[in-house]
Design goal:
Length: 206
């Protein structure tokens, strides 16, 4: 997967053509790739899961509102960062948006520089989150290769037990623990205890 900034895209969903046209020109001039949509349904039909990005979303739209789209994205487990824009901002709307994970709620008219800064933040956040999910998935795949006994030994190692202590707890020889540890390091592609600790933290084993 390509999680680079150059592959990122801004999605704009607003039912007003004039708004879409003006924002598209602004966002393109800042070097972002952008796709604009008149409705939430059009966006859902065209969203590309493989590309990092940020969603610029109007609150009030016919058929499906911005808040309803945010809820639908949650149901579909789509975690794209969302920036809401609104010409009729209400505290209840912004509160609901933030509770559901929006990164900002901008009231029209807003400063162009502020919008572009938030878009950059949103894309950076999505790139980082995607890389973290990919890393965690890779680590979980490696962990799945461990036998139940090797997992027991791993948990003892990351709990700061020495090989001798682990052998005593498991009622096996030191040599057996040494052998398990060597296989654990090989399967997890770890070169040191520090690597094992990082793996454990990424998968909530600590």
């Amino acid at each position: 997967m390509n999680y680079e900034r150059s592959n990122a895209i801004v999605y704009l969903v607003d039912d007003e053509f004039a708004i879409r046209d003006a924002l598209t020109l602004l966002i393109e001039s800042a070097g972002f790739a952008i796709q604009s949509f008149e409705s939430a349904h059009e966006f859902l039909d065209c969203y590309d899961h493989s590309r990092p990005g940020c969603l610029l979303l109007d609150v009030r739209m016919p058929t499906m509102s911005g808040l309803e789209l945010q809820e639908e994205l949650g149901k579909r487990d789509i975690n794209i960062p969302i920036i809401f824009i609104s010409g009729h901002a209400e505290v209840a709307d912004s509160a609901k948006a933030f509770r559901a994970g929006a990164i900002d709620f901008l009231e029209k008219p807003f400063e162009n520089s502020v919008l572009l800064e938030r878009l950059e933040e949103g894309i950076s956040k999505d790139i980082y989150a995607r890389a973290e999910r990919a890393l965690k998935s890779d680590i979980q795949h490696r962990l799945a290769q461990l036998t139940p006994r090797e997992m027991e030994v791993l948990r003892l190692i990351i709990s700061s037990h020495s090989n001798k202590e682990s052998a005593k707890i498991l009622k096996v020889s030191n040599r057996t623990v040494d052998a398990h540890r060597a296989r654990i390091m090989e399967k997890l592609q770890a070169d040191s205890l520090a690597d094992l600790m990082k793996i454990a933290m990424h998968c909530d084993l600590l």
